[in-house]
Amino acid sequence: MFLEKQTIRYCNKLRLKIPYSNKKKTNNDTMNDDMKSATYEDKWNMTESIRTLDQIALEKVIEVVKEKSPESIEILDTDKIKIKLDVISRETFNHIQTIIDESTLESLR
Asked: NET domain spans which residues (predicted)?
């Protein structure tokens, strides 16, 4: 505990980013974090859903990811793009899920 307080004081004095603490987070600490990260099952379901999307919906997904989380896109070939779901924010993940849901509803009509 003493060493942790000293580290925090030192970082504040030098205006450095405070290192990660092993201490459990309080409610105030979690307010700055994204919402609960997506589970493996959520990511798997999204991946399978994206594979079945039509061209228009795929373009929307790519636009959203390029705009909100460009670091998660990897261009493999001229016609292949890899989206790293582990890197995107929860907000972007939810937005993509909305696009998938809308496209699925339209295709069922």
From this structure: 39-101
* Residue from 82, 96, 81 nearest 38 by CA: 96
Instruction: Report which secondary-structure segment, H or E, holds 75.
Output: strand 73-75
Q: What average pLDDT score do residues 46-75 get?
A: 91
More confident residue, 20 or 8: 8
pTM of the complete model beyond 0.70: no
Cα(99)–Cα(104) distance, rounded to whole angstroms?
Answer: 9
Element (H, E) at 81: strand 81-83
Q: pLDDT of 80-96, one tens digit each? A: 888 888 888 888 999 99
Instruction: Copy the structure tokens of residue 62.
Output: 């790519």
What tokens does 87 get? 């890197």
Cβ-contact 91, 71 below 8 angstroms: no
CA gap 82, 103 in Å, rounded: 20
Q: Which residue bears the tokens 């001229």? A: 78
Alpha carbons 48 and 8: distance in angstroms, whole number: 44
